[in-house]
Each structure stands twice: as structure tokens, then as C-alpha cells.
Amino acid sequence: MLKNKIYRNIESILKKFHNFEKRNKKNILLQKSIQSAIYNTSEKNDVLFLNKNNEKFLVHTHDTISKKLFIDFSFDFKIMKKALTLLNKNHKKKTLINIGANIGSICIKSVKDNLFESAIVFEPAKKHFRLLMANIYLNKLENKIKAYNLALSDKKTILNLSLNIRGNLGDNRIVKKQNKHKSLKIEKVVSDQLDNYTSKLNKKNTLIFMDTQGYEPYIIKGGKRTMKKKIPIVIEFSPLLLDKNWIKNFSELFKNYRYFYNLHGENNRNILSKNNLMKLFNQLKTKEKNYTDLMIT
Predict the structure, then answer these.
(1) Same domain, 82 and 221
(2) Could you tell me which residues are beta bridge partners of residue 257?
(3) Cβ atoms of residues 111 and 149 within 8 Å
(4) Sheet of strand 206-210: strand arrangement
(5) What is the mean pLDDT of residues 230-246?
(6) Model's pTM, two decimal places?
(7) How many domains does the chain have?
(8) Whole-number pLDDT of residue 254
(9) What's the mean pLDDT in 285-292?
């Protein structure tokens, strides 16, 4: 009852600020404060609607990614922008492959803003996939974004997807065994190989954007033909999420790519080698912010 009363008060405040917002769109802090108040007083396991900058999203309540998107109007898009500045000037930016699409915060904005003509996206979790499809239709992108309710892996099989149900719905991970931890539950998901979706793509017209909570090496392992195409890749790199076989499963990267850029740094170009990645791996393990995003070319 208290939450409902607070929510009604916020709605009243919103009406008062509506005209003010139109006159003063530069007051970002005020807008974010209002968004934050709405989000933080919403019921758990509910859905909120966001309509901002000509983009529409249904978002989860009680979720880290959705909260960031609802309050700040974007999630991790600065990583995409950094990556685009590093692409070859002749890159046509025709197709985005978004692996771990969640509810569409990256792929929808990328296509809506005409950064890419189209997208092929993958999201294994059913709860996310439902909102992803809804958001694609809300933004009238059903003819430009092809979405698959699949996990990508090194082979076609059925995998265990461990779902985080306590505040970070994006922290879903492929696990070998069913985890008995109370905050997690297991969802069976179908997997396929990246190679089965890239036959008509090449390094001059495509970018791969991948965030799969430590499962990236297995996706790369199952994309040998794709790696030979040398399509630029943006990949999350988190030592705490990678298993002991990660460096071995990155072998296709070392065979086909030459450089990497740390997108959380100054975008300096580094030689892609086992030694350099192990060096970065060990550095990140000792830092409070123990992950980064890499652009691999």
C-alpha cells in the first residue's frame, strides 16, 4: 500500500514537471531523478514502459540492466560507440551480430539510429527473449532485426542456463552442472554454432558484439569459419567468469586476428597474443573493476 501511495505521488510530480521538461531538456539530472523514483518504487516482477528519444522499451523491474536503461536511457552503448570509431573507414556497417542481446538495449538502438542496416541477435533466456521481441515490434524493427531464442556454443546441444533471480537478470550463465544455490534456477536452452548464421557476412560489412558472462570462448570455438572471415569482434573479458580452458578456446582468435583494443582504456592498439591477453587477465584479477571490453580486429 505504501509503495502504491508513493507511486501515485510520483505520477503527480511527473505531471507538474512535464511542461518544465519540454522547456529545459538539458536538465538531465532532474529527468534521471524522476526515472529513478519511478523505477525504485515499482513492484518486483513487473514491467515498465520507457519512451525516450524515439525509442521504446519494455523493461524488467528489479534488474540491473533494465534499471540502467530506464534511468540513463541506455546501457553499455558507449562501448558500441567506441568500437565504431575503431572500425576501418571502409567498413559498411551493414549487419550487427548481437550475442547475448538481453532485452535489446544494444541492437535496437544500433539499428534505430542507423548505425547498422540490420541485426542478427541471440538471447537464450525466455524471460529476456519475450521482452526482446516485444521491443523489436514496439520500435517497428521486425523487418530489420532477426532474433533467435538460442544460446551459441561450440556444438548443437541442450545446455543448462543458470538464471540469476536476485536483482541482476543479465547475469545468466551457462553451467555444466545444475547449481543448487538458492538464488539461481536452471533453464534448459538449445544451442547452435555461430558459423550457421554468418555464411553471407564478411569483415567489411559486419560487427560481432558479444556479452555472454564468460561463455565467449566456447562461442568462438564453435565459429571457426566465422573467425577465418576476420569479422571485427567486441567481447566482454572478465577473468572471474572465464574457466580454465579459456586461453585454449581462444585459439581461433590467435590464428586469425592481429590486434585488440581495451575499450575501457585509451583505445591503444595491442598485439593479440597469448602473452598479452594473459598479462591483461592477471592485471584485471587484482583490480576492483575486474572486467573490460575488448575490440578484436
Answers:
(1) yes
(2) none
(3) no
(4) 145-148, 118-122, 95-99, 206-210, 233-237, 292-296, 259-262, 269-271
(5) 95
(6) 0.87
(7) 2
(8) 97
(9) 88
**What range does the domain containing 171 cover?**
77-296
Q: pLDDT (tens digit, 9 = 90+) per residue, 114-157?
A: 999 999 999 999 999 999 999 999 999 999 999 999 999 999 99
Helix (H), strand (E), coil (C) string for 123-186: CCCHHHHHHHHHHHHHCCCCCCEEEECCEECCCCEEEEEEEECCECCCCCEEECCCCCCCCEEE
C-alpha cell at 235: 567481447
User: How is residue 114 written as a grid cell?
Assistant: 542507423
38: cell is: 519511478
What is the share, in percent, of the chain residues with pLDDT greater than 70? 86
**How many residues comprise the chain?**
297
Largest CA distance in the chain: 60
Whether residue 265 sits in one domain with residue 213: yes
Same domain, yes or no, for 50 and 172? Answer: no
Same domain, 59 and 117: no
CB 79 within 8 A of CB 237: no
Percent of the chain, pLDDT > 90?
66
Closest CA to 205 of 146, 118, 112: 118
User: Do 95 and 65 fall into the same domain?
Assistant: no
**Which pLDDT does position 125 carry in this prediction?**
94
Mean pLDDT over each residue of the chain, to the nearest integer? 88
**Going by DSSP bridges, is the β-strand pair 157-164/173-175 parallel, antiparallel, or unpaired?**
antiparallel
Quote the pLDDT of residue 64: 87
CATH of the domain at 84: 3.40.50.150
Residues 112 and 14 both lie in one domain: no
Which of 25, 50, 72 represents a domain boundary (last residue)? 72
- H helix runs in the chain, sequence order: 2-23, 28-40, 64-72, 77-86, 107-112, 126-138, 216-221, 224-228, 246-249, 251-256, 274-285
